[in-house]
Amino acid sequence: MDSFMQCAIEEAKKGLAEGGIPIGSVLVRNGQIVSRGHNMRVQENDPLAHAEIVCIRNSGRLGNYSDTILYSTLMPCYLCAGAAVQFGIKKVIVGESENFPGGPEFMREHGIEVTDLGICECIEMMKRFIKDRPDLWYEDIGK
Amino acid sequence: MDSFMQCAIEEAKKGLAEGGIPIGSVLVRNGQIVSRGHNMRVQENDPLAHAEIVCIRNSGRLGNYSDTILYSTLMPCYLCAGAAVQFGIKKVIVGESENFPGGPEFMREHGIEVTDLGICECIEMMKRFIKDRPDLWYEDIGK
């Protein structure tokens, strides 16, 4: 696993430690981390504070995202996939999509290269969370 | 024009008066406004603070959005369309799509009823803004 995904996993763990949803994200440009973030819905009481949204928000106003890579521990939902499409991000690398299918086809239709690493640690972390806190999880995905 | 769209236009004008991008949004449930908001990218230095995102954020954590209607002065971009799809909003009513085509087909594919009112006031307000501040506008749509 590359070190950027490791950072995304660290972010997810920070979120869990804060009583939040363990999803982490990192934005990378030219081999360097531009910003990182984790889901903040519980912490900020904001239904839209998904990990990828928080991460992109933390990047400030880059203006152009076409040379960035978005890492996430979980396959982006339509909100976050929509952000990637709208901002012209060309590459999305995810930890897993077993616990949530997200919108990979939507991203691919818009020219984004989506790679699913199927990382055991990501799968297990999310599976445990969904089992422990189904209330939070199902609220998060708009159900 | 119904009064909810009038409120969205008011929000857009507030944004313009603050030196921001004149796009406004209102979320409605059972004939009542749940929340309102306008684009805050300039004001909050947040590239993701699109009007619809701010408006949904201002609603707190409703949990279920299936009986809400999202109004916006402009056709939602993929970020905001993705939010509507992910949160299960069933109806989106927009002021115009002349100045920006957005993602109506993506929303319709996911079962959202999209109505474009083609309101002159919305078209003119946005057209003037794009002419006056092309720098801000083209940054906003991720170009």
Automatic annotation (TrEMBL), chains A, B:
The keyword Lipoprotein does not apply. Pathway: Pyrimidine metabolism. It comes from the Archaea. Its main location: cytoplasm. Keywords: Cytoplasm, Hydrolase, Metal-binding, Zinc. One of its GO terms (molecular function) is metal ion binding. Its cofactor is Zn(2+). Homodimer. This is Cytosine/adenosine deaminase. The lineage of its organism: Archaea, Methanobacteriati, Methanobacteriota, Stenosarchaea group, Methanomicrobia.
